[in-house]
Predict the structure.
Amino acid sequence: MGNLLRFFRAPVFEDEEKTRQAFLLNIILWLLIIVPVPYLIFVLWTVPELSTRAWIQAIAGEILNLTLLFLLRRGYVRTAALIQSIAFWLFFTVTAITAYGVQDEAYIIGYPLVILIAGLLLGPHFSVMATVLCLLTGLGMLLAQFGGLINNPQIRSPQLTWIISLVFFPVIATLQYLTVRTLRDAIQRARRSEEKYKLISKVSTDYVFESRIDENGVAQTVWLGGAFEKMTGYTPEEYIDAGGWNAHIHPEDAEKDARDMETLFKNQNVLASEIRTIAKNGEIRWERVFAHPVWDAEKNQLVGIIGAVQDITEQKEAEERAQKTLLQQAAILNNIPDMAWLKDLANRYIAVNEQFLNISGKTEEEVIGKTDNDVWEQPYADYYRMDDLEVIHTGKRKTVEERQRDRYGREYWVETTKTPIRNDHGEVVGTTGIARDITERKRAELERERLISELGAKNAELERFTYTVSHDLKAPLVTINGFIGYIERDGLAGNFESFQNDLARIRQAVKKMQTLLNDLLELSRIGRMMNEPVEAEFSAIVRDALSMLDGPISARKVQIEFHDEGHKVIGDRTRLLEVVQNLVENAIKFMGNQPNPGIKIGSFRDEHEKPVFFVQDNGMGIEPQYQDRIFGLFNKLDPSTEGSGIGLALVKRIIEFHDGAIWLDSQPGKGTTFFFTLPVSG
């Protein structure tokens, strides 16, 4: 049966217009092959006298139609159509001429058929040509009838019949032209739509589908479109014959697809469900499915599904490659003992190692995809971002030493090296960084710098000390040397009174030299000979110092005011006692002509809540030009005062040895305040 249907079926060509002509011509030819059979039977049965004519017409017609059918099968569609149209015209012309001319059925009915067939098979232009040919032939037959060459049945006027055909035939041609024109326009539009559709299918990675739900609740695919063949390798017919969607789902995703169907049976959309399917060549393809239920409201049940399927295989493969890369990077990063990370151009973290998470106190989920502003405190985040931008813009590696704060609030030093990440085209696509804790190294560097600075200061102090000692010790020696000459001269002259005076002056110079040497010895002992540090109440140290200076305080009638804040200091108590004693003694010594001398001792807290001690007097004060020299060796602002001028240098040396600092604030005529810091407990 199938072979019989294919025998009668019209051939199909790549040209759609040719296929259409072949389809019409095939129908016409088979009708013309079949129609002569009943016609011949009818003539033989009813009009035997016309049997010869009928046989000739039938045989000629069958031979012609079979020949045209052969040409049609060989692809000569237009040639066969042209011959068929001419044959029709000849057949009806001969029939009309041999009968009743323009009044014959062959003219009245046959010629309109010729016009119609010519238009359908060959186009509107041939329809017009056929119309003109038929009218001219009819005019010839009309003239032949007037000349007696054609029988005139006198049924009606032949002129009237021709006039009617003059109107009727063009009308038929016009209608046929409009019909063919409309049909061609529709075909052209359909062709353009199909071309667009094919073009979209070539560039698209999606296809659309429609399924119906059978009585068993199983979805049966009924239509597929878009890039279906490109995605699956199947034609729609092959796909449906091979079992459709259900037969091509990856076994591991069958359960997920079943859940999607349950969603559709609840009249809910399936959005972006990712399913693996198996293509014709056996490849596994990742597809993202969007499905919409077609719901029968009356039956309240799912009757169909329409949707779209997007090929995301490349995206999934890229994600898998990226994931493998990240795992490799993570393995590499986690083998680095320092903090390590990767960032993209938007400052988002792509990967971090375990040390990074330990320092930040965050989980990987809290870091990946986040920026520095989400992970670190604002000042640090801004600084890190500036470094990243510099590396991105310059494309060069950068190493910096910067501060960092860990999850416990501990601030420490790190050495950070940031390097640009480049793609295959050499474009910067991110940054990578490693931060190493260099706190100990930095502390050593700072300690070295402190020691170098301290050594420089000590060298400078040594130079000043050498100069001062050589100068101050030279004076007594010059005095002794000078008076030895006087002693020799007075001894020879027998002037014993002058001799005794000279000896007294030598003794005074020797005593001064001894005092200077003792003070220098005391200064040199600081830092070398120290007692073990102890915790001592500052108030007790002040009381002991005031007790030792009770004589000078009483003699000068100095009013002492001490505000005890309860601080406990840590250090060499004997040396700290010397500090307070020297500062108070210095204040008494330089009271000047103050009628109401007073000294205040106390403490206050600075901006860091650390105690600062002070000794304040209302004495003569210190001129600004001398304030920088006040802590130097043997610097005496008033030569008439007792002492060698080493007291404040001694105080400064003791305080600095205790990691403290000392400075002053003084106004001439209003007094001086010495401020100093010491290590305290608590």
